[in-house]
Design a protein that fits this description.
The complex is a heterodimer of chains A (626) and B (180).
Chain A (H helix, E strand, L loop, with lengths): L20 E6 L3 E8 L2 E4 L9 E2 L1 E4 L5 E3 L1 H4 L9 E3 L9 H7 L16 E2 L6 E2 H20 L5 E6 L5 H13 L4 E6 H13 L3 E8 L4 E9 L2 E10 L4 H15 L8 H17 L5 E6 L7 E6 H26 L8 E5 L6 H11 L12 H13 L9 E3 L6 E5 L3 E6 L7 E8 L8 E7 L9 E9 L10 E8 L5 E7 L7 E6 L5 H10 L5 H34 L2 H20 L3 H31 L10
Parallel strand pairs in A: 1-10, 10-11, 12-17, 14-18
Antiparallel strand pairs in A: 1-2, 2-3, 2-4, 5-6, 5-7, 8-9, 12-13, 13-14, 15-16, 19-20, 19-22, 21-24, 22-23, 23-26, 24-25
Helix pairs in contact in A: 3-4, 5-10, 6-7, 6-8, 8-9, 12-13, 12-14, 13-14
Chain B lengths: L8 H4 L10 H15 L9 H22 L1 H11 L14 H15 L5 H30 L3 H32 L1
Helix pairs in contact in B: 2-3, 3-4, 4-7, 5-7, 6-7
The chains are: A alpha+beta (626), B mainly alpha (180).
Chain lengths: 626, 180
Amino acid sequence: MALMQISEPGMSTAPHQHRLAAGIDLGTTNSLVASVRNGLAEPLADQQGAVILPSVVHFAEQDKVLVGMSAQALALSDPLNTIASAKRVLGRSSQELAAQTKYLPFELEAGHDSVPRIRTRAGGKTAVEVSAQILRCLRQRAEETLGGELTGVVITVPAYFDDSQRQATKDAATLAGLNVFRLLNEPTAAAIAYGLDQAAEGVVVVYDLGGGTFDVSILRLRRGVFEVLATGGDSALGGDDFDQAIVQWLIQELKLDGDLEHQMMRQLMLQARTAKERLSDLEAVEINIEGMGQEALSCTLTRTQFDQLTQPLVKKSLVACRRALRDADITQEDVTEVVLVGGSTRVPAVRDAIEGFFERTAQADIDPDQVVAVGAAIQADLLAGNKPDDELLLLDVIPLSLGLETMGGLVEKVIDRNTTIPVTRAQEFTTYKDGQTAMRIHVLQGERELVSDCRSLAHFDLTGIPPMVAGAAKIRVTFQVDADGLLNVDAEEVNSGVRAQIEVKPSYGLSDNEIEKMLTDSIEYAESDIKARSLREQQVEADRVLEALDTALAKDGAELLKPDEIEKIEQCRQQLADARAQAANVDVIVAAIKALELACEEYVARRMNRSVQGMMQGHKIDEFNN
Amino acid sequence: MPFDFSRNYFDLFGLAVDFNVDRSLLNEQYQTLQGQHHPDKFVQSDDAQRRLAVQITAHLNQAQDTLKDEHARARYLLTLRGVSFDKEQDTTKDMDFLMAQMELREQIDEVSNDEQGLDHLDKLARQAKQQKNDLIQRYQELLADNQLEEAKELVLKLQFFGRLQSQISAKQEQLEDQFL
């Protein structure tokens, strides 16, 4: 067969190994996975032939987890264990969610402020964990369809997602065992799907109104270069809000009680969504609500009424468009194309408003529900190295300014919004006290002047600054935003070259340890893996105990212990050493450690007494009272 | 060939060291270099190479931002000739200029909350732009004469216009949010 292989002159004869890659659109309402096969980017369907996976996760009895349609089917009968719209919680704190005063279709557990946990029968679940379930499901679909393990994926995020929302998305991917090539902004993904397809040139506006987020991006396309000029939006505005507007209207119209059961609320939401979707084609729809234990209710919603209800939302999106135009330093006339993305752009009033604002017909040739995943798949294929000769350059921007807290609770901007990424900016600080060796830096994201109006990303504690007189130390803090739009911080004392250590305290989101713990806890971890891991952990622990004991005995064992006491300890020591060497069973090692610790109790007590005495020698008692 | 971070921004893009920059050439060179070094090209590479790609492209972005912006470019040209700027200490001491700036800012603050307010803001923006252009004109003459200290004084004044422009934009946004 080798003889059959004919190659172009100048090209390598080695057969190119096609690396499996996929693009994932992790949406508020629906998620998709797409891949490039035979040169064509297309969404992958499940076994029933459905391309769209509802972003719904159901936690059933006995740790069973359902994702997608099967989960959605249980939304009414078991609403509190059926989690939808988890993306709204991703990277957000309980406080922020409370401030949004939006209906969330689930209950949050109390006491987890920075990373809210959704109450389910399987315990409190973070949005990261719920999203990971969705990603896992898509990963499985892709690997089954493509017939192999994925090398990597591109996951799309709303362009307007801030640092903690992006980080949370990446954490979810890690948890799902995915290698993330890149986080790609949703409108940019859509532009790739359109641009590469049609070899477009010019200025493209992507208006992306999804289930829970709104983005607008303005791009300049030229010979394979996709340059994002500006982006804007609202990470809490989407089709959900349109549904919500109808729900509120229904509550008023049907004179329903203000404090409704979750089941009733779910039914209202589902009915509202159906009504919204039908109003795209009809002038009026009848809505019927099965009364929970009471008579059925019904009313009629006309398209005009619906348009009135949702007008403030549409207007809000247009304000963002205006701002993006100004940031891009262009006007409506410079725009050559307007592209519609996201299911909510099917609402006629939305389409009319956009076309009116940009004074041109908007394009929706590629299915607005699929276009983002398709664009992500194209990017994933390129990043996997499957098309080494294709020239595609993506220059994206940071959606929100990054700043630092300064005196008086004000924010000083370090990196402006719509700066092309990757970007590095350094800022210098000095000490304000003689001999000061530590400093705290507060990083914020947002456009407003006051710290309280911006999003707190993290506190950095710099320690190990060499002691100098006040003002002499120069600490250069470097902010770096990578191609995923994620922030990294580094600090250095300029004069001495000493690298200050940074301890990051993320204001929101999970720490690396928590992610690691979740990975351990993850059901994907086979039980044997967990056992092997804890065995290794206990071996390490045993080594630590043995070493500590040997050091102590060598130092003062003969002094503090009688010979028979030493013998008893030595016996236990030997048992632990044997258990550790055989490495057969975790429980045996744990028991041996316990036994040894028990045998050493008296010895430890004597050592402590002695060290306290040693410390107090030569000191007056008063000194200890301070 | 290793990337040379120490080259000056003009050399980096193959441009002459001059205040007048050929924007389309800058853009073209920038995109070529980005195409070579962008992190997207190194997704499969090792950690060190990926980090380097981020550093190089961040450097390219910094260089391009500097050359694109008039104030940043004016300042950068002076630093190339050995003039140093101390962010905290250096500011213009021209009292008349400072007074005029204060006045402009007050006018922006006091713009009325209606459509006329937006027109008024546009007018103030044009006014500021004219003043800025005059300064830039003068700066170029001084630079040609190698009168660096005088040129530095103008750069210190120029930085006020950046802030003025952001203040005008912020006010515009505030007005738009109210009644658009």
